[in-house]
């Protein structure tokens, strides 16, 4: 009565499975067919299902239809929210570009300079979608912000030999002073002979670093630095020098970006903080050394006092013992022999 050749029973939504003999197929073929059947039913909201009058089958088709409608509504809502957010950000970018264009026209900037400003704004938009990372970080709790900065910057900071010697708290404080910036190609970050106010840690991209050795004719030294490297270390040397003046050090090299990339600079105020932290670290290290030396000296003095006490006790016991036997010792700590020196022989006899 239930065979595919008879019309007596309504198979309903199971007609395809009975018609194709799905029950006798291997597991992977059966699973693939059932997966396709489920996706087709959800995507069409059960419109293609021919349910029978069986109570459970009817309600199962109702559940499939409602689930398909719910998923469709969720997809539409998500797409609408995404498009609204993207439209809003595009409008903000458009307004910002209009303000920038008005400013450049008002200041009568040359065309080449305008192109550089447009390129920087476009790259910043593509990179961050007009999202200010510093604003996001400022809204987070202190411990979360410290952990994030530690995760992002710890490898960059530890590459500096001087920072690698500092304790964990000082390195975390240095990481907290780093701020991410982006730069486009052919951007001059440092120029030889100019005061150095920023030290850069490279996160992405590459930089060209070259020097003419103070303008000496015929001299040219060039190298390329990439992710993990740093430049502007003259500022760090100046900050850690106790005899340094208020004048910023002069850069010994010219550094320009080769391709678009991200940097993490630490500015002169950060270097002053590093100087203070480094001095505190040196003071703590000196205090630990002095405490260890003091403890060592105390231990030696106690050991020497114990040894002298033992020698005094030994001498006193020997004096007492020899006094009873009629032998006389002097009262100092030097043990002297009670036997008189024998007469020297006369070798002429």
Q: How do the helices and strands line up, and which of them pair or pack?
A:
Blueprint: H1 15-20, H2 27-43, H3 55-107, H4 111-128, H5 133-138, H6 142-158, H7 161-164, H8 168-177, E1 181-183, E2 188-190, E3 198-202, E4 207-211, E5 221-225, E6 230-231, H9 233-240, E7 254-257, E8 261-267, H10 268-324
Biased composition (Polar residues): 313-323
Region (Disordered): 305-349
InterPro entries: cNMP-bd_dom, cNMP-bd_dom_sf, RmlC-like_jellyroll
User: What is the ordering of alpha helices and beta strands?
Assistant: HHHHHHHHEEEEEEHEEH
C-alpha-based Rg, rounded: 43 Å
CATH superfamily label of the domain at 133-280: Jelly Rolls
- CATH architecture heading of the domain at 133-280: Sandwich
* CATH level 1 class label of the domain at 133-280: Mainly Beta
Report how far apart the termini are: 152 Å
Broad shape: flat
Count the DSSP helices.
10
* Major sheet attributes: 4 strands, antiparallel
Low-confidence stretches: 321-339
Strand order of the largest sheet: 1-8-3-6
SSE class = alpha+beta
Overall pLDDT: 77
The CATH topology of the domain at 133-280 comes to Jelly Rolls
Classify the beta-strand content into a percent band: 5-15%
Q: Could you tell me the number of beta strands? A: 8
Helix amount: 55-70%
């Amino acid at each position: 009565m239930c065979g595919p050749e008879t019309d007596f029973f309504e198979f309903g939504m199971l007609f395809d499975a009975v018609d194709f003999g799905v029950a006798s197929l291997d597991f992977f073929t059966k699973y693939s067919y059932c997966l396709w059947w489920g996706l087709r039913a959800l995507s069409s909201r059960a419109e293609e299902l021919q349910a029978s009058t069986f109570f459970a089958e009817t309600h199962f088709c109702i559940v499939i239809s409602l689930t398909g409608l719910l998923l469709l509504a969720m997809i539409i809502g998500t797409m609408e929210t995404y498009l609204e957010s993207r439209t809003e950000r595009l409008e903000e970018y458009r307004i910002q570009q209009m303000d920038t264009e008005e400013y450049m026209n008002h200041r009568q900037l040359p065309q080449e300079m305008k192109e550089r400003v447009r390129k920087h704004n476009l790259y910043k938009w593509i990179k961050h979608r007009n999202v200010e990372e510093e604003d996001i970080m400022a809204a987070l709790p202190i411990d979360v912000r410290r952990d994030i900065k530690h995760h992002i910057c710890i490898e960059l900071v530890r590459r500096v030999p001087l920072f690698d010697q500092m304790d964990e708290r000082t390195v975390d404080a240095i990481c907290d002073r780093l701020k991410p910036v982006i730069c486009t190609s052919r951007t001059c970050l440092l120029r030889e002979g100019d005061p150095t106010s920023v030290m850069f840690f490279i996160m992405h991209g590459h930089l060209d670093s070259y020097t003419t050795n103070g303008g000496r004719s015929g001299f040219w030294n060039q190298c390329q630095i990439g992710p993990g490297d740093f430049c502007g270390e003259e500022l760090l040397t100046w900050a850690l020098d106790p005899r340094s003046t208020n004048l910023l050090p002069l850069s010994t090299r010219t550094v320009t970006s080769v391709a678009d990339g991200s940097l993490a600079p630490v500015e002169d105020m950060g270097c002053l903080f590093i100087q203070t932290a480094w001095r505190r670290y040196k003071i703590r290290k000196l205090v630990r050394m002095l405490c260890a030396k003091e403890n060592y000296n105390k231990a030696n003095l106690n050991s020497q006092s114990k040894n002298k006490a033992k020698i005094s006790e030994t001498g006193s016991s020997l004096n007492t013992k020899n006094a009873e036997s009629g032998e006389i010792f002097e009262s100092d700590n030097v043990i002297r022999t009670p036997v008189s020196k024998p007469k020297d022989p006369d070798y002429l006899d």
